[in-house]
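The following record pairs a protein chain with its ligand, FE2/S2 (inorganic) cluster.
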Amino acid sequence: MTSEDLEVIFSKYPANKKDGLLPIMQEIQETHGYLTTDLLAAVGKYLNIPANKVYGVATFYDQFRFHPRGLFHIRICRGTACHLFGASTYLNEFENQLKVKAGGTSKDRKFSLEISSCMGACESAPVVHINDTFYTKVTETELEKIIRSLKEKTE
Ligand code: FES
């Protein structure tokens, strides 16, 4: 992300106003793909918030990433309904079979895995979102198919 990109984002929000913190971090992530300590420090400087506080806020929210996305970005809903339908087991399957940790990106950058709060489709739990595709009412058999397909696409 260039300093010009950052300036464009900053120009939409008044300096020294804390209200801009979340939307600025969201826009940076949208543009850059993830947040870095340098970018967060620049945000803190612009808004006059200590860098450690900016970092604390960024790490508090699930929505912010600190690693580049993988070729396939997998989001697993762990809202209440999805949790009841086995989302934690599914998360373990993705982690073990694709060698990626929740909140991280695989070493080969093929996969990134994110735990999401409710995606608003509880009646279709459990829900998995991969890049632009939503998978709903995912059964264990379907999960195996999804994982196999991801492996095949990245071989
Ligand atoms: S709990 Fe997963 S979509 Fe609502």
